[in-house]
Amino acid sequence: MENFTFNLSNYKPLLVEYGTNLAFAIIVLIVGLWITGIITRSSKKAMLKSKIDESLVPFLSSLISSLLKILVVISALGMLGVEMTSFIALLGAAGLAVGMALSGTLQNFAGGVMLLVFKPFKVGDYIEAQGHSGTVTNIQIFNTILTTPDNKVIIIPNGGLSTNSMVNYSEEKTRRVEWNVGISYGDDAGKAQEVLKKIVAEDSRILKDPAPFVEIGELGDSAVVMKVRVWVNGADYWDVLFETNKKIYEVLPKEGLSFPFPQMDVHLDK
């Protein structure tokens, strides 16, 4: 049986090579993590200055930091001679599998990022989307929370909210209020026009510019329909709508104008 003799000199070149690589890998790891911290802090400050939603900034900063740290670790392992091709392929396959399993969640996450970055609406806006309408109370990464006028809470996934049509009733400062007022055939349409103009002129919440519009809008089956259009500040929309409904109902009969009921003439042949 042969005696095994360990000769350090035979392994000296190999130790020197790996020792040098290890030293460089440690330096790359330390410097890389230091630079990662600088980039992360700088990007966070830049996002705060650009007025990105505050709830999104910590997540994006964490994401940037994690990706840079992974890159630094891969670079350091590569300097040690570790074969990274298989490792990266395995990491990519794992990422693909996770992505497919969480496709709906990732879509909602991407939608949340888009909503927080581009801000098609903000907290406090009244919107209509995905068959629901309400006031936005919270914009989260995965969902947007609405509260309806009757105090129901609606949770809408951000994926569909960011890719489908949506109506924001609070985006503009002013809104148009419209009424279709039916009067009987035979009533004085000119008088009805003047009465309606007087009603809207007496309301200080109704804007003068654009000017109110009052005209005959339709000759219906049972009524002459007067179309009334005015502009108000968004906050006054509902009050003006309901209060003017009441005024129209009370004032027009006093002026000799009647609201017709649907009528049908039936002729009987003997």
Mind explaining what this structure looks like?
- It is a single chain.
- The protein is built from seven helices and eight strands, in the order H-H-H-H-E-E-E-E-H-E-E-H-E-E-H.
- The chain is α+β, with helices and mostly antiparallel strands and 270 residues long.
- The chain folds into three domains: 13-101, Helix Hairpins; 118-168, SH3 type barrels, CATH 2.30.30.60; 174-254, Alpha-Beta Plaits (2-Layer Sandwich).
- A five-stranded antiparallel beta sheet has the order 4-3-2-1-5. Strands 6-8-7 form a three-stranded antiparallel beta sheet, with helices on one face.
- Strand 1 and strand 2 form a beta hairpin.
- The model has no long low-confidence stretch (mean pLDDT 82).
Shape: elongated
Helical stretch count?
7
Q: Major beta sheet, specifics?
A: 5 strands, antiparallel
CATH topology of the largest domain: Helix Hairpins
| Structural class by helix and strand composition | alpha+beta
Approximate helicity band: 40-55%
Strand runs, count: 8
The helix/strand order is: HHHHEEEEHEEHEEH
Instruction: Provide the spatial order of strands within the biggest beta sheet.
Output: 4-3-2-1-5
What is the top-level CATH class of the largest domain? Answer: Mainly Alpha
Mean pLDDT equals: 82
Strand content: 15-25%
The CATH architecture assignment of the largest domain turns out to be Orthogonal Bundle
Terminal Cα span = 133 Å
Describe this structure in a few short sentences.
The protein is of the alpha+beta class and 270 residues long. It is built from 7 helices and 8 strands. It folds into 3 domains: 13-101, Helix Hairpins, CATH 1.10.287.1260; 118-168, SH3 type barrels (Roll), CATH 2.30.30; 174-254, Alpha-Beta Plaits, CATH 3.30.70.100.
